[in-house]
Amino acid sequence: MLVREGDERNETIDLWLACCLAAIAGALNAAAFYAVGFFSANMTGNISILSDHLALTQWGAGLVYATIFLVFITGSVSASLLISAGRRRRMRRIYADCIMLEGILLAALGGADLWLADRWRAPCVVLGLAFLMGFQNAVGTRISGARVRTTHVSGVATDIGIELAGVIDMLRGRQIDEDAAGMLGKLRLHAGTVLSFLLGGVAGVVLYRAAGGYMIMLAGAALLAIAVAPSRRMTHRR
Q1: Region 25-54: what's the mean pLDDT?
Q2: Exposure on the CB side of residue 132, measured as CA atoms within 13 A
Q3: Mean pLDDT, rounded, of the chain
Q4: How many angstroms separate the CA atoms of 24 and 27, rounded?
Q5: To the nearest 10°, the Cα dihedral for 133, 113, 106, 199?
Q6: What confidence tens digit (pLDDT) does each residue in 94-132 have?
Q7: What's the farthest any 2 CA atoms get from each other in the chain?
Q8: Cα–Cα–Cα angle for 8, 9, 12, nearest 5°?
C-alpha cells in the first residue's frame, strides 16, 4: 500500500490507501472544526472565506485564512521534497517513512492540544493540522499518480459525477463495454474515499468529545500502524 507507486499499483491497493487515509483525514478535519471552528483541509472553503474578508477589508481575519492556505501548501511542498530526495536515493520505503513522520508529528500535535494554554491551542491545532493534511495529500497523490486524494472531497465528488455519467451511458448502450471495468473501479475508489472521509469525520468528533487531544494522538498511532510494517520490510530488503 505504501511501497508500490504509479503503474505498479492496482485498484485494490489504491482503494485500501484511500479509505485508510481519508478516514483519518476526515476525523482530523471534523475534530478541528468541532474544537476550534476552522477547517484544516478544506482549502476551497478557506479561500472563499478569505475572499469574503478581503472584500470587506477585514484584513486581520483574512490573514488567518491566508496563513492556513499557505501552511497547507508548505506541508505539500515538504512532503514532495522528501519524496523526491528519497526517490533519488532509490528508497522504496520513502512513502511509508513520510506517513510515519506524519504520525509522529500528529502525536506531538495531540500533546500540544492537551497541554498548551488556550490562547495558543487553537492556532497550533489549526495550522499544525493544515500542514499535516497538505503533507498527507501530497504523499497520496505522488504514490498513486494522482488517483488518490484523501484530505478533501470536492474533486472526488466531481469524479464520482463523471463516472456515474459514464455508467448511465453504458447502461443506455452508448458507452464501449471495454471501458466498464475501469469506470466501475474508479467509481468504487472515489465512493470509498468519500464514505471513509464521512465516517471518519463522525468518529473523529465523537472521539474528540470523549478524549480531546488524545484523539489526535490516536490518529497518529493509526498512521504509524499503517506505515511501520512496509518501512521495516523495505529496510530489511535493502
Answers
A1: 89
A2: 30
A3: 87
A4: 5
A5: -60
A6: 999 999 999 999 999 999 999 988 888 888 999 999 999
A7: 63
A8: 150
Side chain identity at 195, as an amino acid letter?
L
Amino acid type, 190:
H
Parse the chain into domains and list their residue ranges: 6-231
Q: Judge contact between 57 and 234, C-beta under 8 A.
A: no
Contacts 24+ apart (CB under 8 A), 82-89: 83/138, 83/139, 83/142
CA distance 150 to 190: 10
pTM over 0.85: yes
Q: How far is CA 107 from the centre of its chain?
A: 16
CB neighbour list of residue 94: distance below 8 Å, 6 or more residues apart: 82, 83, 85, 86, 87
- Hey, what CATH class is 6-231 in? mainly alpha
Confidence at residue 216, expressed as pLDDT on a 0 to 100 scale: 94
* Spatial contact of 87 and 102, defined as CB atoms under 8 Å apart: no
pLDDT computed for residue 25 by the predictor: 93
> Which residue is it, cell 472563499?
48
The whole-number average pLDDT for the span 22-48 is 89
> In b/e form, how buried is each residue of 65-87, taking b as 16+ CB within 10 angstroms?
bbbbbebbeebbebbbebbeebe
- For residue 139, what are the CA distances in angstroms to 5, 10, 164, 173, 236? 11, 17, 27, 38, 22
